[in-house]
Structure formats: C-alpha cells, structure tokens
Amino acid sequence: AGHLYVVATPIGNLGDLTPRAQDVLEGVAAICAEDTRTTANLLTRFGIHKALIAVHEHNEDEICARLVERLRGGDALALVSDAGTPLVSDPGFALVRAARAANVPVVTIPGPCAAIAALSISGLPSDRFVFEGFLPSRTSARRERLTALAPESRTLILYESSHRIADCVADIVTVLGAERPLCLARELTKLYEESHSASAAEVAAWLQADDNRRRGEFVLIVGGAPDAVDQRQAEGERILRILLGSLP
Ligand code: SAM
C-alpha cells in the first residue's frame, strides 16, 4: 500500500516548512488539502507542482473511501491543512482513521503547531497540559465550558480568533478569576508576533489598550487551578502563621 503522510506546514513564516516536508510534498502522487487555494499558494512558493484534492470538514467522510482505495492501490498521498499540524483543530481525523482501519501506513512529517509553539514560550507549567482548542463562540456556552474547566489543575491551551479574543479573556476574568495567570500569544512567527503574560485582568486591560493587539490569530495559555491539596496546605500554613504570631 502507499503511505499517507500527515505533513505540518508553516503557521506564518514560510521558512518553517521543513526540508523533509518539501521532499514528501514533491514525492507524493497527490496532496489532500483543506483549502486547495491556500495550499496552491504555498506550493507555488516552493516550486512544487502537484495535484490537489480538497479534503475539508464538509466532504471528508464521503471522500475517505476513495482516498483509501488509492492508498491501497499503492499511491502515496500527503495530507496538509491551511496552517500548522493537520487534525489539530483542523480536518483529517476521518481520513487518518480510515487509513489505519485499512492497514495503510500513516507517517508523520512533523513541524509547526501553534498550540505547542505558544506553550513552549508561555512560562506556564508545561509538564502537563490540556488542549481545548476553540471554546464555543456563544457567550453563555463559552462561560459554561469555562466553568467546567475551572478546577482543572493542568495548563490549558485555547485557540481564539480576533473577533472573540477580547470577549474570551473577559469571560476568563469572570469565570476563572482576575488573578488566573495567562499568556496570550498572537501572530506567532509572523511580522507582528508578540506574546504577553500577566494575570487575566491585566491581559484583558492590555487587549483593550490598543486595537492592534486584538488583530490576528491567538493562542491563550491559561495557568491551571491551584491543586486542592496545595490550596489546603497553603491555608494550613496561613493559619499556622497567624497562630505563631499570637504566641507570646
Ligand atoms: N492546525 C493548526 C495548528 O497546528 O496550530 C491550527 C488550526 S486552527 C483552525 C487555527 C487557529 O490556530 C487560529 O485561530 C489560532 O487560534 C491558532 N493559530 C494558528 N496560527 C497561529 C499563529 N501564527 N499565531 C497564533 N495563533 C495561531
């Protein structure tokens, strides 16, 4: 059988397309792409000419069987999304699952992923983390989701668009508290890349202070809730200090 290559592409800076990704994209029979125009632009920049097949959330389920047939027939295919790593808040899950079910080898060509890129520069605990992707777009549903996530002690990774970033951070202040540590990373690897880490309330104010700060693409890294055990211990120590202070 041919191989299915799951290929990461840049999240902004084209210099991040790896040499191995270029070789694989050159070598496959066809490239499955989320948006064929976006991928055509990328390929043109690298002088790669290749047949493109649109595979997106609306047709993925139907087109899978045909693609797996091609793979079983010996064609190598690549799967890319518009930016970053396929399947991470992007299409590809149905195809990868179908390929595996048909015993087609699935091979990663790793590279950029906005979530991991932001986490690695956030300064928040990165030994354990939870990827939540996009929160619901409606305020009530978003607050409900945040309420469910409030006790989570691991670092949270969220994706957000420019339309909602201010509302999303405002909801974090409301639901998770003004003091919750955040790192907001925007436009990673691009011209206006910046990242700002502070308390939730400070990040909310930072976003309000300049319209430009609400433009572009965002990853929000949210510090986890203090552990229940840690909290009890801290409270115990606080009481002990008060008692010690009252000793003669
Ligand atoms: N598959 C992609 C990945 O591996 O990161 C994510 C695709 S998801 C549809 C797009 C979201 O990823 C954006 O709304 C934003 O939250 C985040 N993102 C993508 N590129 C980014 C960048 N350069 N800087 C910050 N966030 C980015």
Automatic annotation (TrEMBL):
Keyword field contains rRNA processing: yes
Span of domain Tetrapyrrole methylase: 3-203
GO molecular function, a single term: rRNA (cytosine-2'-O-)-methyltransferase activity
Enzyme Commission number(s) of this protein: 2.1.1.198
Enzyme class label: transferase
GO cellular component: cytoplasm
Localization (cell): Cytoplasm
Keywords: Cytoplasm, Methyltransferase, rRNA processing, S-adenosyl-L-methionine, Transferase
Catalytic activity reported: cytidine(1402) in 16S rRNA + S-adenosyl-L-methionine = 2'-O-methylcytidine(1402) in 16S rRNA + S-adenosyl-L-homocysteine + H(+)
Keyword Transferase in record: yes
Main localization category: cytoplasm
Cited function: Catalyzes the 2'-O-methylation of the ribose of cytidine 1402 (C1402) in 16S rRNA.
Family indicated by similarity: Belongs to the methyltransferase superfamily. RsmI family.
Name of the protein in its database record: Ribosomal RNA small subunit methyltransferase I
Lineage: Bacteria, Pseudomonadati, Pseudomonadota, Gammaproteobacteria, Nevskiales
Designated gene of the protein: rsmI
